[in-house]
Amino acid sequence: NVDGSVPPARSQASPQEQIVLAGLFRAAVQAQKWPLAIKMMDRISVFRAPPPRGRILIDLAMAEISVWRAKNEKAFDPVTGMLLSASQQEDREITARVQAVRACERCMMAAKRIENMDLVEDAAVILWNLGLPLLCDAHRFKIHKSLQKASEILTEVQSALSKLRVMLHFEVAKCEVAQDILTKGKLELEHASHVDYTLSWDEAKKMAAQQGIAIPDEDDPSPYLRWLDSHIKRNHNMLAWKLALYDEPSDPADIAMLLIDQVQATKASAHVHSSSLLELKFNLLQKAFERLDSRLEELVASYPSLETEVPPRPLVLGSVEPIKEIPRQAPCTVEADTAKRDAAADSRPATAKEVAESQIKRLVMLLCEVSQEAHKIERFELAAQVATKAMEIAAPAETENPGVVQFKVGIEAEGGILLARAALTRALCLADAIDQFGVLPGVVETTSEEEAEGEEKVHVGFATEESDEDDGTPPPLTAEEIEQVLKLKTDLIDAVLFGARVAAQFKQGWMVCNALVHWWNIHIGITDDNLAEKVLPEY
């Protein structure tokens, strides 16, 4: 070269040697030996035309390296010459991930052309891992086509990565629904459900054992493995009602679900004033709460007397009265051996009590969503009322262990997280109600007479015009107001502790941390004003 440097020599390695070197490069990336992998990348870049398998391995490794560099290496603004700001760094990482996902998509297509199924599945796994931080409403659309292409290729090659295929179909369905392509979104959800239920009994048992999940021999493994099952069914039910032009739901849960979706989809526009929009959302949430509340009252009242066994079907018709339908059965895992189907725990008809339990769980989860939506539009009274109702229905009983919440019906992790969020939402609403009295949460309140008795005598001077003016301090509370405020403060502490306990029972450490953050932010005035000696005993 003109500057005296020696250009890199073209590689003289054979095609087979290039494949081996590309495999070593890929192994270094998998082992996360990034300095070594970067040096190997500089060496491998001189390959003139590596064979297809080698090219795919190199591109997959380079995709992961590009994301790692975007996350860990410093970069400078080309205009100012300064380090990138936090927002610029975030944009840089997002751009690198989008480009890496598209590179993995191309690798999947190339691997399919050379009929190398191992590389197809490897590229699909890397695509999913690199795109995982983008699977949110703000960025999911950027990799929509790549996710769709990956799901199509895995379906064409009949990949055994059923869990990955289910997740890809589910994310593609979200993208389609976000673009108001409801029919295609519903079809993707059906594909996800079909793939999810193609695993045989023995294969599901083996998969659970590999994941370290202990399942009794007589139990169906599907509830332990299919953690997207409830999400798929709920979204499919939502789309089914949205696409039903001439049918109206009769179930209060379905009605409330559609009302909540309408609240979430309603956005401000030039034709709708913001106050009118908030009033519209409030009316929809109020209507949803009334539907849920009335249905819950009926279920809770009839729950203790419901049958725990399914009555046998009559062999001989003794009357002309119509026979009642068999209760809905829980979904079964597809089995090769039909003899095992009779022993499955979910193959029998559901009892009336079990059906009521599932309905109560769904209604409680919808109540939690109504509470959160009401808090977003700053209707704190409604949000606190709905959250209180959900907490009373889900866990009305007191236990001997104060650190454990006793639920009335069995609740899964998803319902537990929603219930913990509802409890924290109630705490925020109570904090706002306490703030209306001009006092701090967590502090003992005293009457004006008690304060006067505790104060030291001071010299009284003559009044001036400035002293006659209102200094902005709130008037002293009456005895009735103090009693009301202390009740609100105690309920606030109980709500935060309830949310933390529920989160701890479901081993959701991040939610426990959120409860601690709420506790600190709500009671931060105690530390700011040095009021540690005046806190409530419950605090």
Q: Structural class, from secondary structure content?
A: mainly alpha
> What is the succession of H and E elements?
HHHHHHHHHHHHHHHHHHHHH
Beta strand %: under 5%
Low-confidence stretches: 330-345, 454-464
Helical content (DSSP H or I, runs of 4+): 55-70%
Largest sheet: none
| Termini separation | 75 Å
Overall pLDDT, averaged? 80
User: What is the subunit arrangement here?
Assistant: single chain
**Strand element count:** 0
**SS element count, helices:** 21
Bulk shape: globular
| Alpha-carbon Rg, integer | 31 Å
Describe the structure.
This protein is mostly helical and 539 residues long. The chain has 21 helices and no strands. Helix 12 (252-265) packs antiparallel against helix 13 and helix 19 packs antiparallel against helix 20. The N and C termini lie far apart (75 Å). The longest helix is centred in the middle third of the chain and has 29 residues, at 274-302. It has helices at residues 15-30, 34-44, 52-72, 86-113, 117-131, 144-156, 162-178, 182-196, 201-210, 222-225, 229-243, 252-265, 274-302, 352-376, 380-394, 413-435, 448-454, 465-468, 479-505, 509-522, 524-528.
Features:
539 residues, mainly alpha, 0% strand
Compact overview of the structure:
By secondary structure, this protein is mainly α.
Q: Could you outline the blueprint of secondary structure elements for this entry?
A:
Blueprint: H1 15-30, H2 34-44, H3 52-72, H4 86-113, H5 117-131, H6 144-156, H7 162-178, H8 182-196, H9 201-210, H10 222-225, H11 229-243, H12 252-265, H13 274-302, H14 352-376, H15 380-394, H16 413-435, H17 448-454, H18 465-468, H19 479-505, H20 509-522, H21 524-528
Helix pairs in contact: 1-2, 1-3, 2-3, 3-4, 3-5, 4-5, 4-6, 5-6, 6-7, 7-8, 8-11, 12-13, 12-14, 13-14, 13-15, 14-15, 14-16, 15-16, 16-19, 16-20, 19-20
